Amino acid sequence: MGDTELLIDAMAGQLRDLLTERSIADPVLVGIHTGGVWIAERLRQRLGITAPLGQLDVSFYRDDFSRVGVNPHIRPSELPFDIEGRHLVLVDDVLNTGRTVRAALNELFDYGRPASVLLAVLVDRGGRQLPIEANVVGTRMNPPDNQNVQLNGPDPLQLTFQTSS
Amino acid sequence: MHILIQGGRVIDPAHQFDAVTDVFVAVGRIAGLGQRPAGFKAERVIDASGHIVCPGLIDLCARLREPGLEHKATIASETRAAAAGGITTLVCPPDTDPVIDEPAVVELIRRRAKAAGHARVLTLGALTHRLRGERLAEMAALKEAGCVGVGDGGRPITNTRVLRRALEYAATFDLTVFLTPLDPELSHGLAHEGQVSTRLGLPGILAAAETGIIARDLELIRDIGVRVHFGRLSCARSVELVARAQAEGLPVSADAAIHHLHLTENDLLGFDSECHVRPPLRSQRDRDALRAGVSNGTLGALCSDHQPHESDAKCGPLGDTEPGISGLDTLLGLSLRLARDHGWPLMTLIERLSWGPARILGLPSGHLGVGAPADLCIFDPDASWRLAASHLRSRGQNSPFIGWELQGRVTHTLFDGELVYAYEA
Amino acid sequence: MTTTSIQLDRQGRLLHFLTTEGLSRRHLTEILDTAESLRGVAERRVKKLPTLHGKTVVNLFFEASTRTRTTFELAAKRLSADVLNLNIATSSAVKGESLLDTLRNIEAMQCDMFVVRHEQSGAAEFIARHVKPHIAVLNAGDGRHAHPTQAMLDVFTIRRHKPDFPSLRVAIVGDILHSRVARSLIHALSILGAGEIRVIAPCTLLPAQVESLGVQVFHLPEQGLRDVDVIVMLRLQRERMEGALLPSEQEFFQRYGLTEDRLALAKPDALVMHPGPINRGVEIDSRVADGARSVILEQVTNGIAVRMAIMSITLGNHARPDGEIA
Question: Do A and B have ≥3 inter-chain CB pairs under 8 A?
């Protein structure tokens, strides 16, 4: 639906303002697989960022490895640039408990030491279990716990809602 | 004691007898068949209706582990297990510790068996001193002490000059020689050399390790004229060689272990150490040929090749385990299952387990003629039951047949006219 | 129960890694894809992932091998696991505890994974059958039977250069009879659909009925190496001369050694592989071992990522609450 693209427009606008505010001239976007990467690609286009896109698969950093094991659809993390001293924008589709972002931050810091990290998410659905907040939010919502919010893609991008029994 | 076995189906292969009749036992002998002998007063009556009454089984090869390996089993424990399996005579190979190369050891085994009183234990004397394959053993003395034959005890003589002399010497005293057909140099392996050993990465034992030796030994027998029995054949070609020699009139006999008629190399998949045996389990073709050989009489006997082990000996990666199956408890059940599955006449099967071995050994027993020793097995041929570890009476629990369905159940065993076993439900 | 079945749980997931034989293409691909993700770790500043933090991996080596043990150790450490190295002598002179007793003693130390190398075929499976349910067993080589992690790093290496398995001709040269590497690799290649698998060796070094494994047999490299895409040279051990299997290393090199001339028989872009350690001048000419077609050193690098993948997957499967194991 065009709605999602509109939300990304909103995100791009917020992000542009924030980067200007902080005098960040040369940011690097890093998307969290899979939805975060799709959104990061679009943000990168809209903001005319030339630096290559980074991709993170946080499976090996999850705190629930003991419960769920290795993700069979794993994809390699790729950060085609040196992190040292760069300003990063971490992008994910849905922010919920905050654990995925925690894992992503741990992984980023194993690559090197960034100057700063901003967080941009398409949907903030609340339910935080860690003290983590997004700097850029496409939309906020408060669905019941048993409702799954998911981004389908890569084209067209569409948010779906599924209630599990 | 006067015992009457009433109304059983008596099968006596020696006399080709198969009929429902009564058997009269007195003073350790068969006193009569069908007709009550004069002066017979039954002190005990065994109702054998619906059961089979046959000569007690004669097991051509059972290792009782005494003397020398008492941590594995003893004469008392194993003869007790034998009795429960309908086996009244066991032949003990000479590879005890000390080896049966002097009369004192023969006497020790005889006394221990007598004290236990469950079954008859016969001994094979050693062919060579200490079974080392170098000097001859005192075969004349061993025969006089009671050995029913001489053999290599699973340690084949590799020096052919010594082998020739040993065969000639044994022939002098009219002793049957029990040989293990195995070339040690081709037998440094754990499994039959074939597809399974290749897949499992187990060093293999060629069929030629057995057949080559049989072929060579047959040539020696032809020249020397000694009576030879080959123990535990495992290859199809071995059966062929023995059949041809018998057709030519050579004094050759052979047996197979019952497990070789049921299991093949495929049973080793999963590295099951219970299937680690020597000679190894071979291909289906070999197994089928062994079955045919037993059926047509080329193999005159079926034995248990009983080798009880303590659990540690079988617990480990296959190459670290000792070979051998504990077979006394399952000899009859597995044999009857074979007969049932392949339509063999009971007369034939029972012959391979009693009269056949008796003839190979030159024994007066193994039949139910009047005057014969009263060694009898009475069993229910229709009982079918699943083998559990708790059913094994031998000290050795090492059997791959646990969980298998066995045919036939021994209800009574008489040894020397005494009831040594009675089944209790 | 076969070796294959005890390494899988009821849902068909890998609990142990004992042999490549009987696994599905999906199992192998999962390992290869996970290894691909892990390959980059070695190039990062922090060469570690927190995945196995708090887990203890025991290297149970009944057969000495510094290099294999080191790669497993490195793989475990890169996943933040703690590592315990136990080298247990097995010479009959030093025969002490039974294998089972050794196992029980180590289990009492609360470990999560055993990496086992043993001279007897079937040893890893024996251990897997007897360990407590929460422990994962990795086979680092059991007798002649299997060396599945080596096979996986070999196919991983091949896939990085020539991913189209059905089009590949792979030749394995040398002592096939004694080689657990060969057996595991043959199974893995079959499962991945390799076009043709060839074994090249003198008769003395070929196992009985080896064709039953799904390979074509060649006795001379001049025929067997024609147009192959991958050549895997196996290590020749000194003992083979004593066992009357070969007359000399010289003759072996003369007739089977991978020289530049023999390499030229293969496709121009053929890969040269060797599980290591290489015997220069016996299996392979130095110029070939160090040449442009050789990926021998890459195999070593890949070995760590592949082992990290296998460790993660098996331990991860042990953890699942919906599996058999708590």
Answer: no
The Cβ-side half-sphere exposure at B219, using a 13 Å CA radius, reads 6
Q: Annotated active-site positions of B, please?
A: 305
Question: What average pLDDT does the structure give for chain C?
Answer: 92
pLDDT value, residue A67: 72
Exposed/middle/buried for residue B272 (C-beta within 10 Å: 0-12, 13-18, 19+): middle
What is the predicted pLDDT for the residue at C323?
44
Say yes or no to pLDDT of A76 above 90.
Answer: no
Query: Do B87 and B119 form a contact (C-beta atoms < 8 A)?
Result: yes
* Residue range C3-146+301-319, CATH number: 3.40.50.1370
Strand ordering across the sheet containing A136-140: A54-56, A28-32, A87-95, A116-124, A136-140
Asked if chain C contacts chain A via 3 or more Cβ pairs within 8 Å, the reply is yes
Judged by CB atoms closer than 8 Å, whether chains meet at C48 and A110 is answered as yes
ipTM for the predicted complex comes to 0.92
Q: CB of B120 within 8 A of CB of B95?
A: no
Helix (H, G, I), strand (E, B) or coil at B299: coil
Radius of gyration (C-alpha) of chain C in whole angstroms:
19
Residue at A86 is within a domain: yes
Token pair belonging to B68: 């020398």
Task: Please answer whether residues B378 and B51 qualify as being in contact, where contact means their C-beta atoms are separated by less than 8 angstroms.
Answer: yes
Strand order in the sheet with C82-87: C82-87, C56-61, C113-118, C136-142
With contact defined as beta carbons under 8 Å apart, do A32 and A56 qualify? Answer: yes
Which residue, chain included where needed, has tokens 């290894």? C35
Q: Which residues of B touch C100 (CB under 8 A)?
A: 315-316
Looking at the domain assignment, is residue A157 inside a domain?
A: no
Q: What interhelical angle do B103-116 and B75-84 show, nearest 10?
A: 50
Residue A84 lies in a domain: yes
pLDDT greater than 80 at residue A52? yes
Specify the CATH number for the domain of residue A111.
3.40.50.2020
Closest CA to B52 of B356, B378, B335, B384: B378
Q: Which chains touch C (3 or more CB pairs under 8 A)?
A: A, B
Residue B158 pLDDT: 95
Q: Which residues pair with B254 in a beta bridge?
A: B230
pLDDT tens across C272-320, in order?
A: 999 989 999 999 999 999 999 999 999 999 999 999 999 999 998 887 6
| Partner residue facing C49 (CB), from A61, A67, A112 | A61
DSSP secondary structure string for all residues of A33-46: TTHHHHHHHHHHHH
| Secondary structure element (H or E) that encloses residue B46, with its range | strand B44-47
pLDDT in tens, C118-153: 999 999 999 999 999 999 999 999 999 999 999 999
Query: If one looks up domain C148-297 in CATH, what number appears?
Result: 3.40.50.1370
Q: Which candidate, C249, C304, C251, C303, places its Cα nearest to that of C280? A: C249
Q: State residue C248 phi and psi, 5-degree precision.
A: -165, 160
What pLDDT is attached to residue A59? 87
- Residue C243 pLDDT: 84
Query: Which amino acid is it at A84?
Result: E
Please identify every stretch of chain B with a pLDDT value under 70, giving residue numbers as ranges: none
What's the domain count of chain A?
1
Domain assignment of residue A121, given as a range: 3-66+79-141
A76·C44 Cβ contact <8 A: no
Nearest-Cα distance to chain A for C309, in Å, is 9
Instruction: Determine, yes or no, domain membership for A160.
Output: no
CB atoms within 10 A of CB C193: 12
pLDDT in tens, A105-129: 999 999 999 999 999 999 999 999 9
Return the structure tokens found at C293. 């077609």
Do the Cβ atoms of B131 and B159 come closer than 8 Å? no
Which residue ranges form the domains of chain B, and what is each CATH number?
56-361 (3.20.20.140)
CATH 3.40.50.1370 residue window(s) in chain C: 3-146+301-319, 148-297
